[in-house]
Amino acid sequence: MWGTHGTLSIASTFSPAPDTSRLEVHGTLLADSSRPTLLFEALLPTRCYRPRKDVRAELIPSEARSCCAYKGHTSYLSPPSATS
User: Fold this and answer.
1) CATH homologous superfamily of 2-83
2) pLDDT greater than 60 at residue 4
């Protein structure tokens, strides 16, 4: 995926992660995936995305929203302990 921000060209690449991915917060397992995907994007840290089916925790929709000119609009989910 390629995009342009002003005069800066930005490349984004998705790649299957070579290992499994486990996400825990305060000892609570939120996700355990054998098929995570890494997003490499110029000027930003690498991010790890996991399939929704691999999320183990009960998540609550967050009011947070964001928009990217290249990836579109998104909303977020939070574990119950993060919303109380």
Assistant:
1) Domain of unknown function (DUF427) (2.170.150.40)
2) no
